[in-house]
Amino acid sequence: MISQLRPNYMHILNLYLKTIEQRNKYLRQIKEENKDENLLEIWDEKLSEYAIKINKYREEFIKKIIDKIKIIHNNITNGKEEIRIEYITECRDKKEYLQLLKQRRRLDIIKGFTTKGIHRDDFMIYINNKEINIYGSQGQNRTAMLSLKLAELQVIYDEIGEYPILLLDDFMSELDKTRRKNFLENIRDTQVIITGTEKLDIENLNYLEYNVNDGKIIK
Predict the structure, then answer these.
(1) pTM given for the model
(2) Which of 46, 47, 124, 147 could join 73 in a cystine, given CB atoms 3.0 to 4.6 angstroms apart?
């Protein structure tokens, strides 16, 4: 997603992943061939350099998403749910990440791969301060994902001045009537292609409907 808006992000990420691959290969050589482990510092320096740059792109992007998603999710749930996103990383500071790589060196050698880094980053979504992947219902999980997609659409619009096409596959099945109605209100100005196995109940929106039957498309 970020690479579509910041092409240099993908360039740096590819450099990082290539360096990780080289470091992992050397970790296995240390274990199997007794290579000099001090040479890992060469890869550690490069990893930390790329990781910090990648982190800055991600922090910027997550902040924009957070600003958008709170309003969107509030609208879809009629203010009954508060959504929060937490970006989890250990690569905000170059010096600290280098120290972490050094601390984990022995474990990395044993395992044969780099156990800490920007490639291990993640983000958690909370609904009313509870982890959605543990405590959220199917409807809440689906709503959070849709809110995330709509937030991404708005970020793209802010960047390039137009909305991309939103593709949704059978997204209505786990949403109640209220969430469904509120979500459709939030995509009023967006071009959306929705696929499903049942007829959609869409009100007050301009749309075209097609039925695919035996390989034939009927408007």
Answers:
(1) 0.86
(2) 147
